[in-house]
Amino acid sequence: MTTKLFIGNLPFSTTDESLKELFSQAGSVKTANIVKNKFSGRSRGFGFVEMETDEEAVKAIEMLNNKEIDGRQIGVSEARPREDFPPREGGGRSEHRREGYGRSENGGRYGSGERRERRY
Length: 120
Hints:
Residues 3-81 form the RRM domain. By secondary structure, the chain is an alpha+beta fold.
């Protein structure tokens, strides 16, 4: 059974290959991937590694948690499933509107009826 690990505080120069190479010291790595910004393609500073067995995952956590790599102390822990996270409030742009925008009845721009002074 594979165990997925979360690796945080990675140097931005870390690649999928270098992450796989690092974790192969602890055992067989099934997959290793760095999470990247979908627009710029730049690393977001964390990633995931799947180890072949639970024993290898425990060994990887013991060996690499709090290890310094390129001046950054990485954190390694067992990954939690996404459903453990609380749901996000609000919605998309069309569903969620913030109060305070537009003009109020008295012509103010901030919804409270007061005009704010402009400071130049």
